[in-house]
Amino acid sequence: MAQRFFVPGSHTVDQQLFLNAERSNYLCRVLRLVRGDAIEIFDGTGNIFTCEIITDNPRQTELKVLTQTVTARPQSSKLGVAIGLIKGQPMDRAIAQATELGATDIYLLEGQRSNVKLNKQRMLSKLEHWRKVIVASCEQCGQINLPTLHDPAQLAPMLAQLSETANHIIFFDPQANPAPTQLAPQDRVIFIGPEGGFSPEELRAFADAKAEGYRLGTLTLRAETMPAAALTLIHQATGWPTNTDD
């Protein structure tokens, strides 16, 4: 398979594209690709294109779109995950793994017990960083649909917004019922708390929203590990819907 990269935008055959300096440098100096080499690009919405390198400039590489090899198709269902904010690289890993495991939406949860308090400017910087984490994860694992990264929000307004949709809302808590082994495919959002777990007030909010609480045996997993474990469990229970190219 040719090297595949994310290039945002709407692409058409015979279109010429210019990559930014960071991506151009990676293609030309790290991968040592040159004029005439073929690469694949994807737009993040399920489309894949084969391109030829026209100009191998490490500051601004030029591509020509040769053909569209995969056309976007509707996703059978959405599976979102709301991750309680965690400090540092553990949050990067949680977002990367959620992306690799096919989360269609990643919600950033400002839990009452979260230990992350960022001002507006710092949060904007973090959001940009996490978008890059998502892109890198998609390129690494072959996922061609970028999950939507939602702005941080507290639990109550997030539940209020989701209650207006048909999403099946799930939260994981050590005191809840064992997770089911079979679930019908439908749109879902999984809630994962921060290291300190959900507060009593947040648990009442889940009850008011008629959310279902599950647990994973008797183990207490780290907050950065739990999103991947929960997504894997739900995929297994619903039959692993495919949202990537075959």
Task: Walk me through this protein's architecture.
By secondary structure, this protein is α/β, with parallel strands linked by helices. Helices cover 30% and strands 25% of the residues. The chain has six helices and eleven strands. It has helices at 21-30, 89-100, 120-141, 155-162, 200-208, 226-238; strands spanning 4-6, 16-18, 38-42, 48-55, 62-70, 79-84, 105-109, 148-149, 168-178, 188-192, 212-215. Strands 8-7-6-10-9-11 form a six-stranded parallel sheet, with helices on both faces. Strand 6 (79-84), helix 2 and strand 7 (105-109) form a beta-alpha-beta unit. Helix 2 (89-100) packs across helix 3 (120-141). The protein is elongated. The protein starts with a strand and ends in an 8-residue tail after the last helix.
Structural class: alpha/beta
- The strands making up the biggest β-sheet line up spatially as 8-7-6-10-9-11
Oligomer description: single chain
Estimate what percentage of residues fall within beta strands. 15-25%
Q: Percent range for helical residues?
A: 25-40%
End-to-end separation in angstroms reads: 13 Å
Radius of gyration: 20 Å
Task: Please provide the ordered H/E string of secondary-structure elements.
Answer: EEHEEEEHEHEHEEHEH
The tally of beta strands, per DSSP, is: 11
In one word, what is the shape?
Answer: elongated
Number of helices: 6
> Strand count, sense and closure of the main sheet?
6 strands, parallel
Unreliable residue runs: none
Q: Averaged pLDDT, please?
A: 91
